[in-house]
Amino acid sequence: MTRYEFAAGLNACLDKVNELIKAGTTNLATKDDLAKLQRLQEEFAAELATLRGRVDALEARTSELEANQFSTTTKLKGEAIFSVADTTKNNHSDTQTVFNYRVRLNLLTSFTGKDTLITGLQAYNLGSFGPELGLSRGAFKGLSDSQAKLSFEPQFPGINPQNLSSIGANTVELYKLLYVFPVSSSITLFVGPKAETSDAFQAITPFAGEGQESISRFGGYNPVVRVSGGTSGSGLASAGGFIWNLSKKVNLTALYGSVNAALPKDLGFPATPLGAGLFEGSTVAAAQLTIKPTSSIDIGLNYAYSRHQLNILATGLSDADLGSILGRDKEPVGGGVRMNSFGGTATWRLSPKLAVSTYGGWIIADAERSNASTTFNSWMVGFHFRDMFKQGNNAGILFGQPLDRDSVSGGARFQANKATPYHLEAYYRFKVNDNISITPGAFVLFNPEGTKDNDTVGVGVLRTTFSF
User: Fold this and answer.
1) Could you tell me the pTM of the whole model?
2) Other CB atoms closer than 10 Å to residue 322's CB: what's the count?
3) Mean pLDDT of the region 175-184
């Protein structure tokens, strides 16, 4: 031990001796013991003085913080993401280099010390690359979910999907309002009008982290998880569920959500494009079973049953996809689409600094008013490098297939010039300090949106994240 550590122990011993003397107990230290203590006290006088000075300064600082703290029950956490990005195509591109940002402020309130009320505010100036690149040519370009999306980009930037109204850049909005509270040592409940899957489902892949890891939306989560993930901008609107820790190695989480639970009546399209009511309109019931068979392996199994009035639950499907499910491309998704989604994600840490991660997802989509049916699948495999070249610096390289139509039946059909889409990505996160990181990276989309009509697209990103 160091001299300061020994001095701290000596100080505690002296305090105990003083307590014994004041108490007048019979088991007092002997004169020889006191002599040894006195010798040690003299020898470590400088360290003891320094230690006591540090304690006094710490107590004064603590008193100042308590007198000027923001709240006795609430903590403020924030994240500001800035990025510079540009795209390339095979022949030419009309896009320009863009500068985007997203700022989030989260108020974490606890009333018992074990519960948490999460109140999240955000503002951004993001606009999707998709329409500018000629991607997602469906009936509603503004409601498309292009595959050329950044990690922190909402599914529908600049649009409120609940009523199709526009959201101005830099507008502050409530994106999360959720209450999480334990009811036993193993079961935790959560409920709120604004929630996202990441609040409940554990992220199995190390690429998850909108401001810290993968630079694309594709790399963060299994698309089956995103079925119950809301829009990553306004949340799932209303959701409730439980987190059940069956053991240290097994966890079961389930939720039910409704996008327009607050509306009492469905006025039809376009007034209420997502339907209305807690059990009607766009809804989802989803579950994740997380298994940790060893200390180095994490496995997540997902299932979701959902009903979609429009492409709202962030599956990764474009509007053109939903149109083809119904056998048409130029009309709203009348009557809705029902989906059964199955997924699996696994991460194996081969060493403390190297992990391999993979996921697979399957979605069966059936039109409500016809016999049209479409099956979609997606997969990803990648390597994650921790503390690469320097402690705190992470890197990743991943390759996979975004959601693509695997089979069609009834009135559904494949898109013209169908081709399997692929996604290749690499990034490196440089940790400047505990609060700032810089992540350069790039990803390439081959046959984006699953058709040969779209050129290969490259997206380069330089992302800076501030956490506080």
Assistant:
1) 0.77
2) 29
3) 92
